[in-house]
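Reopening this ticket.

The earlier resolution said the output was attached, but the attachment link was broken on my side. Pasting everything inline this time so it's all in one place.
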Amino acid sequence: MKIRNGFVSNSSSASFVIIGYRMEEIGLDKLNDEEKEKIIRECDPKRLESKMYHKYGIDDVWYEFMSNGNFMGINGITGINNEGVMAVGVKIAWITSDGGDLDDKEISLDEVNNIIKKLQDKMGICKPPKIITGTVAC
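Inline output:
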């Protein structure tokens, strides 16, 4: 049996690897509430009818919309917006500190490129994607 003395935190974290873009590079960090709502209305309008939207407003709905793996209506695109880490792209790895393991996942570079190309086309991005790593609270 382990006994811990001193400060123990209940917070969890996750480390991630994503191939894509930092949101400030492509302007997603500057969207106002009306612009967020317009994007959601175009891609997933039922979210604006949800209890979450009526109770918490656009920011919580936007966060859920970003992180669902179908951001901007593109299957395979995920957004991360947590404590200053803001990125969007193809999530390669997500490992939690509470004992979660790295999922067995396989995706070819061609598949990643095809998904990223859809994001580039939809948003008019000309820059090549980057591999972004980091840690976020969860």
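Reporter confirms the inline version is readable. Residues 13-137 form one domain. The radius of gyration is 17 Å.
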